[in-house]
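Appendix B, record 7
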Amino acid sequence: MIFFPNSPYSKRKDKPAVISVFGILLTAFIAGMIFKGSIMDLAFVYGESMSPTIKPGSIAIIWRPAYGLINPFSGSYIFLWASPQAGDIVYIAGNPVKSRSLVKRVLETGPAYIYENDGRMVSWTATPSSQGKNGNSPIENAKAFFIPGGRVYLLGDNSDKSYDSRDFGSVPIESIRGKIIFYQGLPIP
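Structure tokens (predicted):
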């Protein structure tokens, strides 16, 4: 109800309209922050690390509850219900070395081994069916390293211009703030 103090129909002498408008704006602000922090958000992609998949100047939509419920005020997971899968494009809020956020593709979720084969990073998960002859792994002669459980190895699609896990190592799943579900290229300003 909007209050008009000089109206002949007004019987109230207080100012409920000011309180109501302030309450509505405060409620809308809080609801928007909860939505942005725990449901969906936007990210602007500036670098070339994900080209040609995501071009510089693109806007990406982040689906925050893809892997778990995020506390919208602290940014940490309340609990996880899924792990990122190989091929997912994810949003990392502040990486271990630089404070900027990143958009990268998941190569592998640990536990797994990562090694380089003909200039490409390849993952290998030890299972009985993946054993080579004489029970040896296909990476026995390669320079491989282990990704522990609860961590992911991230790569950019444009490996020559990407700052990714080859530079800062694997990251904890908890540092992933959502999955990119849509992106649209825009011209660079």
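Remarks on this record: Helices lie at 16-38, 165-168. The chain has one domain: 16-111+148-184.
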